[in-house]
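> run fold tRNA threonylcarbamoyladenosine biosynthesis protein TsaB
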Amino acid sequence: MASTKPTILLAMDTSTEGCSVALSGSDRVHANFILSPREHTQRILPMVDAVLKDANISLNEVSALVYGRGPGSFTGVRIGIGIAQGLAFGADLPMIGVSTLQAMAQQAYVQQGATRVLAAIDARMGEVYWGEYQLNEQQLMTLIGEEQVLPPHAVLELYADKFDLPMTPVGTGWQAYAELSSAFNLTETVVVSFPHSEFMLPAALDQFLNGQTVMADQATPVYLRDKVTWKKLPGRE
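> ok
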């Protein structure tokens, strides 16, 4: 007989100034989001406890632990994945990483009906974390091309023949670099600035149902800029 156990996913993200937790699979999605640029380590675990308590679910009942894998703040991504790994180790849970750019694109679809999204997070150092997403038949935002870290002028060169296509912008990169917003035919103002764990859940459920999970010791972040950092060190490529 097939198992009737519900799929319960616990998601968390600390990759940007936002700090968020969400839980799906019970009666509804339970979610909490706060802006807390320098207090992620103090905030995230109490938020996890609060969401589990609100849903009346224990950590051992969770099917998988979802984490914002980046891109985003180097420190924030490390905090998020480290805490998620600790919880997953303790409860023997598999893990699922979801892109922070994809999460923002998914939120734009759910809240604004967007079908094509340009995601840009301010990466500092005169660059943005960049990704283009399009809605698929499963109502999931899917990546077009690859996620990259680019200076604004490189984005403009890459999209020189696409400025007139209707796009929805998400992320802090649009406010940080006005030359981006002035170049594109944007269909909306930027409403989604930070990734929310709640909108990582659809992609995570798709991965879970397709067996795309890893154990805690195999969970990896996506910095995008890590190769640049290594190249600065002698002998590194």
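The beta strands are 9-13, 18-24, 30-35, 64-68, 95-98, 116-122, 128-135, 141-150, 168-170.
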